[in-house]
Batch of 4 targets.
Target 1
Amino acid sequence: MVAQRVMGVAARGLARRGLALRRHPAARRQRMLTRHGVDLVLDVGAAGGGYGSELREFGYRGRIVSFEPMRAAFDRLTATRTGDDAWDAHQCALGAEPGTAEINVASNSDSSSLLPMADRHRAAAPAVDYVGTEQVRVERLDDVAGPLLSASRRPFLKLDTQGFEKQVLAGGPETLARCVGLQLELSFVPLYEGGLLVDEAVSMAYGAGFHLVGLEPGFADPDGQVLQADGVFFRV
């Protein structure tokens, strides 16, 4: 989410000067990660590594495993995590079944999705649109996370897949059952055709035993209407 990343850059600049750190959503999230003893973050939809970098800058020292399917974004992710032995990355998308798929590449990269972009997204960000496609490998979360979870006691799952969260979770029921926390994009209007909306996302999380404990700012249109936010869930 572009707005959240911009806010993160500004907040980290303030944090280095000892200012306003506790008000940033990542600082609140980090306190919850610490409280729940999280020792592994599964970073699904890692893009260029912004989320993992934010975890590190706000104090998380446990293991990170990132998943990013697109070539250019994965190259940026690889450069970002260089020198961090506790941060691994896999170049693949996650879905309900293994195979290959065609991902829609957006002009800003962050809005790329395996789903068609909805008109509401284009209206809110007219400078952003799909500019091409790319063939990507798709794996099931349970298949790739199994070996990782054997070395983790309290994993946390973060999903940033531009509407594709339902399919990711369909391929990861065993992984989800092991996780103590979950971060999901909550879309209040359709931004991707067939994408998960907030009511279904929250119901799915609560049905799996999680409770909403925090909201992080997300995507808004030029008039200020909030279209999307990140929900942070933990088992209580």
Target 2
Amino acid sequence: MITIRPAVPDDAEALTDLMHGSAAYSGKYASILDGYAVKPSQIERDVFYIAERDRTLCRFYSLTLDGEPELDLMFVADGVQGSGLGSMLFRHMMTEARRQGIASIKIVSHPPSVGFYEAMGAVVVGTKPPTAKATWSRPILSLAI
């Protein structure tokens, strides 16, 4: 059974563990997560939702609402990728954004995830140049809500 619930500050460590365990962020993409941890204050400030299967965390997302609304984090555990659960969580995010009165969401994407976001209705609108932590260009997408 899948349950989607708001994250609470005590979830910060488990969310960080799920991110760092993601095979999508290994190899050349690992540097962006170096030293990064989800903070309890971040969970309190942003919109964070967790999806659990049988009480086991398997995916989550966060939206930042300060300034231009942005999908800040979206992670799906390796073992459930391709099962449709990521799409289900993404649709939840869209519903939550609509409930909050958001017209569009910016997504600065992990390059291998662009196809997923496009399939969900987002459109590539630009590219974020490399930085010290992200040494590759990242597609910028816009999602109309």
Target 3
Amino acid sequence: MQNYKIDINVDLGEGIGNESQLMPYISSCNIACGGHAGNVETMRSVVRLAKRYGVKIGAHPSLPDKENFGRIAMKLPSVVLYKSIKKQIRDLLNVLKEEHARLHHIKPHGALYNLAMVDEKTAKIIIEAIKSIAIPVKLYVPYKSVIADVAIQNNISIMYEAFADRNYNDDLTLVSRDKSNALISDDVALFSHVYRMISTKKVKPINGAEIAIKADTFCIHGDNAEAVNLVKTLRTNLEAKGISIV
């Protein structure tokens, strides 16, 4: 697959502390900006690392729920959720301005991401928050998701995202983290999972036959216990197949 290019992104600034180990092997990062994790100091630290390694910078807004790491669905009034998402993005933008760096993309986190995949109301709130900052950014979204459709309708540039270290159900939702087979932590299995999606544009769910998927960027979660080894090995194996990480 010579001349094929792909983006690898990782969620960072979440209190794990492995940013300096991951940064040399990725091409974009999603920085926690206060909703589920992170503060001005952690944002600034990750931004500086990203600048050093030439990694594209993204905002990683979440439901405002640090106690549950933004991974539990919450019922919030629309105006409350809108203001929270907007503030999180703005807080990172303020850091970026101080550090003379720019925002490349936005990727919702956890339960907010999962809700926006299927719920039009949530998707529209995220899109309105993005439009309010009046900066041209990309939005990382799942293939065949509600938020992808809403973004396109509102002229927001999207990149389809797939998950390198997560298994899929046959409706393209992610296997719940409550299940033992939700995460992929073996580097051989992970490469096979990703390479299938790149080379055949299909994913094999835990039950059923392969289904179509598109991916411009692949995510490995920074809080995966094997994250550093997984990212390093994935990059090495993709480049050996002639695939560039950009």
Target 4
Amino acid sequence: MRVVRMPRLWGAARLGFLGTAFLLGGCATATPWQTPYNITALHSSVPVEAKNAPHTAQVVLQLASVSAPSWLDTNAYQYHLLYQNPQMLLSYRDARWVGTPAEMLDMRLLQHLQQSQHWKAVLSGQSSGAAQYVLRLHLSNFVVNFTAPRAGQALIAGTATLLNDRNYQVIAQHAFQESVPLKTASAAGGAAAMTRAGSDFVGAVSAWVNQYQ
């Protein structure tokens, strides 16, 4: 496996995670010494729109399992050094995500939609219940981009498609992208920014699909 040496990145915590990075290709297996990061908000709360949502909704929505390209089908904590080699995708040696980006966003979006109370029910992709609408979300980007040794942004992008469950006719489609600056150039700083980007992304998708209830 080829090892890529890279410049040291400095942040408030001065973590050594960016000292050595591995190219993807079998390096994403979880090991005890890898720090696991999640994008679940520490203090989740009921969405603001739920307070004014109608409680007589009759439509059932099903959230299909979030999909993603093959390069995102991993729990590797991936990033770019845009100021050095923007085409090279790297992953932390000593950090990982607790699940794939699609799995983490699937859980957050399902919870957010269920709490919004805009629907009679919101079913997961594995549910066998009957629904009138199906929401499909395809994730196209989930990466931390370092624009300089001490600066970067967490980026999440994807496309949501709302379908009629009976004939799979497309009702609407919309592309979403959220970017949040890093407060510290470290794995922990990137995870904190990705958590905020995840909240913004999930909130935007939920607000969009809720208008079709």
